[in-house]
Design a protein that fits this description.
mainly alpha; about 70 residues
Length: about 70
């Protein structure tokens, strides 16, 4: 919604949030399902280094405490 339209309609703030959420839900997705699946498949073809999740979480927590 543009500022000009908002000024003209002068909707209450409590009305703006639900309206914005509704418009976002109704908006067409940026990519179709096939495009998204292709991206996931391309990513799955790669082999990236990984680690033990418990060790990674421990190191993250240590970083927060430092």
């Amino acid at each position: 919604m543009s500022k000009r339209l908002a000024r003209r309609e002068r909707p209450a703030v409590a009305e703006l949030v639900p309206r914005a959420l509704r418009e976002a839900r109704e908006a067409k997705p940026l990519n179709d399902a096939e495009t998204k699946l292709k991206a996931v498949r391309r990513g799955a073809e790669n082999s990236f280094p990984t680690g033990d999740i418990d060790q990674m979480l421990k190191e993250i927590e240590q970083g927060y405490q430092a």
